[in-house]
Write a structure and sequence with these properties.
Layout: H1 3-20, H2 23-39, H3 41-57, H4 62-68, H5 72-87, E1 95-102, E2 105-113, E3 116-121, H6 126-138, E4 141-145, H7 151-167, E5 175-178, H8 181-188, E6 196-200, H9 203-211, E7 225-229, H10 235-247, E8 256-262, H11 266-280, E9 283-286, H12 288-293, E10 297-298, E11 312-318, H13 321-331, E12 336-340, H14 344-353, E13 358-361, E14 380-382, E15 390-392, E16 398-405, H15 411-415, E17 424-425
Parallel strand pairs: 3-4, 3-6, 4-5, 7-8, 7-12, 8-11, 9-10, 9-11, 12-13
Antiparallel strand pairs: 1-2, 1-17, 2-16, 14-15
Helix pairs in contact: 2-5, 2-6, 2-7, 3-7, 5-6, 6-7, 10-11, 13-14
Length: 431
C-alpha cells in the first residue's frame, strides 16, 4: 500500500468523525486558519517569491505568472472568503424531508458530507486556502494536490492550515497534501477510499483525470464562454461588459473566448469595440463578414472551439438570438454564456435555451465564481448536470442520508396487510 492509499484509508475511517464535529468547532477551526495565515504571511510570501523566480526562469507566460502570485491582495481575498464561509449556515444535518410512514415509523432525509474528496488543481496557490476551507466547513476530509509551479507556496499554506485546523480539535487526518505527480496517479487508484475527485486545470489535464480513474469526477474540461450582443443591446453598456469578460482575468475559465454579434447592430458596435480592445491589447479573430467591418485576423472553425486563455477573442455575426443559441450549444463548453440585450423576450429565449451552467443578461461572464455568488469560495466549477452544477460551494460538497426511526415494525406486517402505510409529511424542523 503506497503512501497516498494509506492516507486515503485513514481518512475514510476519520471522515465520519469530522462530519460529526459540531458546526461551531468547524467554524473555530476556520477562524484559526484565517488568523494563522495573517500571522505567518511573511513566511507565505517568501515561499511564493521562490516559486515566482523559478517560474520566470522557466519562461512562464505573464498571464499565467499572475495566477501564481500570492501577495497581500490575494491574502485579503482568501481571508475575506474564509470570513464569508464562517458566516454561512452549517450545511451538515439539514433536514430536507420529514415523513411519518406509519404511527411510530418516521423517516428523515438529512444532509451529510460526501466523505473523502481528492482535489487536484494547477497554478493558483489561493485555491489551496479556498478548497481546504470549504472542505472543513462542509465536514469533508480532503487530499489536496496543488500545481508544481507553486509547490513551495502550497507546502507552507498547507502546513499553516492543517496545524490550525487540528489545534481546534479536528481529526489529524481531516486534510492531507500530495506533492508529486506520481501521487496523482496513486490517488486515481484509491476508489475504495476516495468518494469524489475534483480536478481544476487545463482541458488535457482534466481529461487525463477522467480517463484514468474509477472514482467519480466532478469538474469541467473547457471554459469556452460566449457573449452574444443582440440587436437590442445598449452599446454603451455592452462595450465595457465585453471588455471586462475578456480582459479582467484573461487566464480564468470564465473569461469570454467568443463574441457573437447580431448583424443589425454590428456596423455600429464592432468599430467601437475594436478600439476598446486595441487599447487593451486584445487580438480579434473574425469571420469574413467581421473582417469587412473592422481590421482583424481571420477566424476559422477551430477558433470557435478554442479556449485561448489569452488576449485573443473570436468574433462572428449572427442573424438572430436563436442562431446565437445554436452556435453556443454546438461550440461551447456549457460553462457560462451571456446576452447583452434590452429586449426581455430575447433574454428569455437565450436564458431558456442556452444549455450552460450559467446564463447571464447584461453582465460579464467573469461573475461565474463561488465567492461572487456568496458561497465564500468554490472548489471548482462543474459543467455536468448530475449532483452539482456551476460554482461548487458548500451545497455541492454535500450529499444526504435517510434516517428511519421505528418501534419494532417489520416489513412482514405490511406485506400481510396487518399494518398499512399512511405517509404523512411532517414539518422538516421536527428532525
Amino acid at each position: 500500500m503506497n503512501h497516498i492509499e494509506e492516507t486515503a484509508r485513514r481518512m475514510k475511517l476519520e471522515s465520519p468523525v469530522l462530519a460529526a464535529c459540531p458546526g461551531e468547532q468547524r467554524n473555530e477551526a476556520l477562524s484559526r486558519v484565517r488568523d494563522a495565515l495573517i500571522a505567518q504571511k511573511d513566511r507565505i510570501f517568501a515561499a511564493n517569491q521562490k516559486d515566482l523566480a523559478r517560474a520566470e526562469e522557466s519562461g512562464v507566460a505573464p498571464a499565467i505568472l499572475g495566477r501564481l502570485k500570492f501577495d497581500d491582495h490575494k491574502l485579503a481575498d482568501v481571508t475575506a472568503g474564509i470570513d464569508q464561509i464562517i458566516s454561512l449556515p452549517d450545511p451538515v444535518g439539514k433536514i430536507s424531508l420529514a415523513r411519518e410512514l406509519d404511527q411510530g415509523l418516521t423517516l428523515y432525509r438529512e444532509s451529510c458530507p460526501i466523505g473523502v474528496i481528492g482535489v487536484i488543481f494547477e497554478a493558483r496557490p489561493d485555491a489551496m486556502v479556498q478548497i481546504s476551507s470549504l472542505c472543513l466547513k462542509s465536514g469533508n476530509c480532503a487530499i489536496l494536490k496543488g500545481g508544481s509551479e507553486t509547490r513551495a507556496t502550497n507546502q507552507v499554506l498547507f502546513q499553516i492550515i492543517h496545524e490550525a485546523a487540528v489545534s481546534a480539535g479536528l481529526p489529524e487526518d481531516c486534510l492531507a497534501q500530495a506533492d508529486s505527480h506520481q501521487e496523482i496517479d496513486d490517488l486515481l487508484t484509491c476508489d475504495r477510499y476516495v468518494d469524489l475527485l475534483i480536478p481544476r486545470g487545463s482541458n488535457a489535464f482534466v481529461r487525463y483525470i477522467m480517463d484514468h480513474t474509477k472514482i467519480p469526477v466532478m469538474g469541467h474540461a473547457d471554459g469556452i464562454c460566449h457573449i452574444y450582443v443582440d440587436r437590442a443591446a445598449d452599446i454603451e453598456r455592452a462595450i465595457p461588459v465585453v471588455v471586462d469578460a475578456k480582459v479582467q482575468y484573461t487566464a480564468a475559465c470564465n473569461a469570454a473566448e467568443t463574441l457573437l454579434v447580431h448583424r443589425d447592430i454590428a456596423p455600429a458596435f464592432l468599430p467601437r469595440l475594436a478600439e476598446a480592445f486595441r487599447e487593451e491589447g486584445v487580438t480579434i479573430r473574425g469571420t469574413r463578414e467581421v473582417q469587412d467591418l473592422i481590421p482583424c485576423e481571420p477566424a476559422d472553425e477551430e477558433d470557435f472551439r478554442t479556449e485561448y486563455l489569452a488576449l485573443i477573442i473570436s468574433v462572428k455575426l449572427v442573424d438572430s438570438v436563436e442562431e446565437a443559441v445554436r452556435h453556443i450549444n454546438l461550440y461551447g463548453s456549457h460553462h457560462t454564456d451571456a446576452i447583452m440585450t434590452e429586449d426581455p423576450n430575447a433574454a428569455r429565449t437565450f436564458m431558456s435555451l442556452v444549455d450552460s451552467a450559467g446564463v447571464y443578461q447584461n453582465c460579464s461572464t467573469r461573475f461565474a465564481d463561488g465567492f461572487r455568488y456568496g458561497f465564500g469560495a468554490e472548489v471548482g466549477i462543474s459543467t455536468g448536470k448530475i449532483h452539482a452544477r456551476g460554482p461548487v460551494g458548500l451545497e455541492g460538497l454535500m450529499t444526504y442520508k435517510y434516517k428511519l426511526f421505528g418501534q419494532g415494525q417489520t416489513v412482514g406486517d405490511y406485506a400481510s396487510g396487518k399494518r398499512q402505510f399512511h405517509f404523512r409529511d411532517l414539518p422538516e424542523q421536527e428532525g
